[in-house]
């Protein structure tokens, strides 16, 4: 049994390694393309620019790292949202809408109920409201997909716009939340901000807050749900073979709806984490879809849809974003970072190909070695086969 | 006779397995050479090497004594090697001629010259007695005809070496006889044929010589006139195989499954796929639904098990109504009748339409070995262990408060792997995708029989399997029968139908056209009913 466990662990590790190597290759390709662009635009500064990108948040010391964590939290959540839906075979392109709905619900609860809810509980309630807002917005494409067989990509593109315009309309019409002179929402009530959990003493002078811890805990929870529970078994079965799951008696319609609800909830928390981050955050209703929602797709791809991988992928993208900020010191435009991220997404979607190429090479080499090792052991068997073959040949002659 | 093709010491490796280990094969001009082996013995791999789909690690290929390198199917084609794959590679909405010329287009001044291609196809078709209509679309012709189109494709390209990969798996008995005739005609013309199969009868009937592979290794080559079926099977499986099934005395019990007036719509047309089917399955009997593919058997089973919806009819499993779909009129009539009959019992439940879930059926004694093991039977990306508990993962013994008990799952899977001799690369953690077809099927059989069902529905349980595995599966099914289970078998293999079943229901165009007793009927008679040229009025 012990031996068996060891083999199991080995396999899991090697699979993780595969995913990791694919993601690292995608990231490296992205950076190379970025370097080429910088070489074309301004050759003398190109390598210094690459240095800035690679240093990312570290350019700003501890405070810079703290800022990276601040930026990472919301995109980790949208990444989890997209990745979770991926595992169930759904492409949740609706993360921006769910994210915005979450953000709005969190705003609404923070402003409208700040005198009702005890101030120590306000941030938790706002966060939960954000989650519920996202859940509702995720449920819509889920229901359409499950019961009317409408492709979730189409419905979620629609719900993105509906969600965004609805929120902008509601925000502009509510003077408690909206500051007409500045055309943005007012500063959040102090008690609605997420506690810093002591992170501010580790990264002084940064905008870091407890959001990153919440995101990491949720990632672990999602990992457990997906890989350790019967519910996760159903979700993954459905994602990997829908008809097979149906045959096995899984209620695949319910599974699709549940998956979209959870995915929406995750994106909703992402929106709430941003608005409750405490860096005097406000929402500007300018009729633009939330970029953090779309970045979730990139994060999920780079993280190979694995919840733990997504945490690191989210941190990496935030790191790059900060690198782009410091890139301006070398007179580059920060848009280069967006190009790099674009290229990384492109190569991440090749992850399957990359994944299948490398392990094939590795396992083949390993396998060759194994054969050499086991030859001695199989000599006995081969002799047996030889004898058998001879007898067969003879009987053939007879 | 000289060797047209020689494959010398071919070795082909895949991660974790040696598919071909030092295999040598000699094909003489004008001979039909059978390649025999169990599933996963490496027959298809060897042919894929010859056809240029795989590159061997070791060994060489000679054509007419000269060394050749085959990197892709185009090279093979240039060398005159053609292949009919097990799954046809045809464009459904192209005509026969268009399919045949696809990839070998005849041009006249840069424009497709269909008429000369059509002429050549007609000539070839006539010469070899293929009788193919060149102008019909592929989607409108039978599987047997589609196979002939594949054959014509090879002839059109002037191939001299023809590889047939399990060609008889999809054919009716009559079509098989015709194919054998066509193959003999080719051999007489000097073409050489490589014939991949695991059906001994066909080899004995048509082949000149036979090379046997077992588990990737070369076992030997024999001349058919000097050998027997028993010897071939011993070479293939490595032990003696029983051909006749020993069936114990029947011990029939009460009705397990009762189907009445069952109707299922067709997915493709407005006609019904299944019309008004009624029958019963009792404890201790194997009832076989026989018929040519596409006569409604698949739809019937899918609707019965819950993968599809039926439009009319009632199904009872052990007296429990699991499906009831009646017309509005029938329902109101039945309920009106009830209220008249039971004036005193006002509490009597009204008759309602019933559609129990797949899970309910699975939990209440229905096991289903599905027709398509990749689409329904397995989650290929899951491990062997996870597939063993595909319907039962939520049972108490495999979970605690919603958390899967990995150890219990693995222990259970290990026990089943042992009991049903499922072979895989890494034991219970093996991804099912990497396993051979026969072993994948064993996973399903193990899972479904171990559930200890009242009713076992087995749809083509031995499709594409080798003698050893078929023997094993047949014994498992017979054992279940002797244990008093009811068994509903759907099969296209006539041997299987005749040997295994206690009662045969022949299905033709969605209706049951005959109920036969295998002891009092012949294969020929069965074939006539299956082809729809004979019909009987069923009793009751």
Can you tell me about this structure?
The complex is a heterodimer of chains A (398) and B (540). By secondary structure, chain A is an all-alpha fold. Chain A has a domain at 59-333: ABC transporter involved in vitamin B12 uptake, BtuC (Orthogonal Bundle). Chain A has 15 helices and 2 strands. Chain A has helices at 2-41, 46-55, 61-87, 95-112, 122-148, 152-172, 199-202, 211-228, 230-240, 242-247, 252-275, 291-302, 307-327, 335-348, 351-397, and strands at 178-179, 184-185. A two-stranded antiparallel sheet of chain A has the order 1-2. The radius of gyration of chain A is 26 Å and the shape is globular. With 540 residues, chain B is α/β, with parallel strands linked by helices. Chain B has 3 domains: 3-237, Rossmann fold (3-Layer(aba) Sandwich); 242-365 and 453-540, Rossmann fold, CATH 3.40.50.300; 378-451, no CATH class. Chain B has 18 helices and 25 strands. In chain B, helix 14 (406-420) crosses helix 15 (437-450) and helix 15 (437-450) packs parallel to helix 16. Chain B is globular, with a radius of gyration of 26 Å. The interface between A and B is large, with 35 and 45 residues.
What would the keywords be for this entry?
heterodimer; A: 398 residues; ABC transporter involved in vitamin B12 uptake, BtuC; 15 helices; disordered C terminus; B: 540 residues; alpha/beta; Rossmann fold; 3 domains; 6-stranded mixed β-sheet; 25 strands; 26% strand
Gyration radius over CA of chain B: 26 Å
Q: What is the percent of helical residues of chain A? A: over 70%
**Quaternary form:** heterodimer
Specify the number of helices of chain A: 15
Number of strands of chain B: 25
User: Largest interface, per-chain counts?
Assistant: A-B, 35 and 45 residues
- Mean of the pLDDT scores of chain B? 86
CATH superfamily of the largest domain in chain B: P-loop containing nucleotide triphosphate hydrolases
Coarse shape of chain B: globular
Amino-to-carboxy terminus distance of chain A: 49 Å
Q: Name the overall outline of chain A.
A: globular
CATH topology (fold) name of the largest domain in chain B: Rossmann fold
Give the terminus-to-terminus CA distance of chain B. 63 Å
Unreliable spans of chain A are 372-398
String of helices and strands of chain A: HHHHHHEEHHHHHHHHH
């Amino acid at each position: 049994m012990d031996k068996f466990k060891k083999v199991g662990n080995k396999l899991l590790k090697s699979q993780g390694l595969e995913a990791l190597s694919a993601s690292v290759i995608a990231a490296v390709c992205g950076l190379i393309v970025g370097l080429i662009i910088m070489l074309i635009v301004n050759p003398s500064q190109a390598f210094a620019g690459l240095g800035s990108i690679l240093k990312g948040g570290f350019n700003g010391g501890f405070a810079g790292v703290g800022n990276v964590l601040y930026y990472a939290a919301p995109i980790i959540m949208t990444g989890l949202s997209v990745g979770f839906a991926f595992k169930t075979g759904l492409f949740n392109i609706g993360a921006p809408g769910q994210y915005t709905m979450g953000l709005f619900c969190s705003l609404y609860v923070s402003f409208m109920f700040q005198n009702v809810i005890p101030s120590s509980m306000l941030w938790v309630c706002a966060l939960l409201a954000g989650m519920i807002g996202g859940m509702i917005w995720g449920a819509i494409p889920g229901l359409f997909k499950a019961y009317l067989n409408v492709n979730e990509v189409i419905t979620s593109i629609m719900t993105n716009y509906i969600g965004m315009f609805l929120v902008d309309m509601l925000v502009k019409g509510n003077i408690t939340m909206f500051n007409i002179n500045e055309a943005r929402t007012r500063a959040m009530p102090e008690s609605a901000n997420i506690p810093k959990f002591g992170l501010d003493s580790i990264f002084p002078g940064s905008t870091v807050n407890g959001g990153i811890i919440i995101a990491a805990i949720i990632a672990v929870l999602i990992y457990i749900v997906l890989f350790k529970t019967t519910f996760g078994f159903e979700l993954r079965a459905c994602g990997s073979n829908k008809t097979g799951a149906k045959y096995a008696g899984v209620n695949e319609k319910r599974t699709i709806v549940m998956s979209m609800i959870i995915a929406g909830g995750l994106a909703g928390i992402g929106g709430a984490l941003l608005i409750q981050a405490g860096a005097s955050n406000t929402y500007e209703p300018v009729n633009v879809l939330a970029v953090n929602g779309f970045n979730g797709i990139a994060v999920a791809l780079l993280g190979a849809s694995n919840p733990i991988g997504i945490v690191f992928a989210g941190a990496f993208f935030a790191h790059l974003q900060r690198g782009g900020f410091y890139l301006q010191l070398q007179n580059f435009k920060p848009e280069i970072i967006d190009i790099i991220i674009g290229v990384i997404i492109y190569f991440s979607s090749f992850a399957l190909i990359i994944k299948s190429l490398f392990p094939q090479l590795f396992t083949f080499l390993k396998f060759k070695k194994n054969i050499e090792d086991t030859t001695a052991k199989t000599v006995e068997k081969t002799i047996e086969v030889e004898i058998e073959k001879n007898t067969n040949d003879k009987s053939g002659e007879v | 006779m000289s060797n047209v093709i020689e494959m010398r010491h071919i070795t082909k490796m895949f991660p974790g397995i040696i598919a071909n280990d030092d295999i040598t094969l000699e094909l003489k001009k004008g001979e039909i050479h059978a390649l025999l082996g169990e599933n996963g013995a490496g027959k298809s791999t060897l042919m894929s090497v010859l056809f240029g789909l795989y590159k061997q690690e070791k060994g060489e290929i000679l054509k007419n004594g000269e060394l050749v390198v085959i990197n892709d199917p185009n090279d093979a084609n240039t060398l005159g090697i053609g292949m009919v794959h097990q799954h046809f590679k045809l464009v459904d909405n192209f005509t026969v001629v268009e399919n045949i010329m696809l990839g070998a287009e005849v041009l006249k001044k840069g424009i497709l010259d269909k008429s000369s291609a059509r002429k050549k196809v007609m000539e070839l078709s006539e010469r070899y007695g293929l009788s193919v209509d060149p102008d019909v679309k592929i989607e409108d012709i039978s599987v047997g005809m589609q196979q002939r189109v594949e054959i014509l494709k090879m002839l059109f390209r002037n191939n001299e070496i023809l590889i047939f990969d399990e060609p008889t798996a999809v054919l009716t008995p009559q079509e098989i006889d015709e194919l054998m005739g066509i193959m003999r005609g080719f051999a007489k013309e000097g073409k050489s044929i490589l014939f991949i199969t695991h059906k001994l009868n066909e080899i004995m009937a048509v082949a000149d010589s036979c090379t046997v592979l077992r588990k990737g290794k070369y076992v030997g080559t024999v001349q058919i006139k000097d050998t027997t079926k028993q010897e071939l099977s011993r070479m293939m499986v490595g032990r003696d195989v029983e051909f006749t099934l020993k069936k114990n005395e029947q011990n029939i019990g009460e009705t397990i499954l009762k189907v009445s007036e069952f109707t299922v719509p067709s997915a493709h047309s407005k006609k019904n796929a299944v019309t008004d089917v009624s029958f019963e399955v009792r404890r201790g009997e194997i009832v076989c639904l026989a018929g040519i593919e596409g006569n409604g058997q698949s739809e019937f089973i899918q609707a019965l098990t819950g993968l599809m919806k039926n439009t009319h009819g009632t199904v009872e499993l052990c007296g429990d109504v699991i499906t009831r779909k009646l017309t509005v009129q029938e329902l109101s009539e039945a309920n009106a009748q009830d209220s008249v009959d039971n004036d005193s019992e006002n509490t009597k439940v009204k008759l309602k339409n019933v559609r129990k879930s797949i899970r309910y059926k699975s939990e209440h004694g229905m096991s289903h070995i599905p027709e398509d093991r990749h689409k329904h039977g397995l989650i290929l990306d899951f491990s062997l262990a996870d597939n063993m508990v595909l319907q039962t993962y939520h049972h108490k013994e495999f979970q605690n408060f919603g958390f899967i008990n990995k150890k219990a799952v693995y222990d259970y899977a290990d026990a089943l792997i042992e009991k049903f001799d499922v072979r895989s690369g890494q034991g219970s953690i093996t991804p099912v995708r990497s396993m051979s077809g026969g072993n994948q099927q064993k996973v399903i059989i193990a899972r479904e029989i171990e559930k200890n069902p009242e009713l076992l529905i087995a749809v083509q349980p031995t499709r594409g399997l080798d003698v050893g595995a078929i023997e094993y599966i047949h014994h498992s099914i017979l054992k279940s029968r002797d244990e008093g289970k009811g068994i509903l078998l759907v099969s296209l293999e006539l041997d299987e139908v005749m040997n295994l079943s206690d009662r045969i229901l022949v299905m033709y165009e969605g209706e049951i056209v005959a109920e036969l007793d295998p002891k009092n009927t012949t294969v020929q008679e069965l074939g006539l009913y299956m082809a729809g040229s004979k019909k009987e009025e069923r009793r009751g």
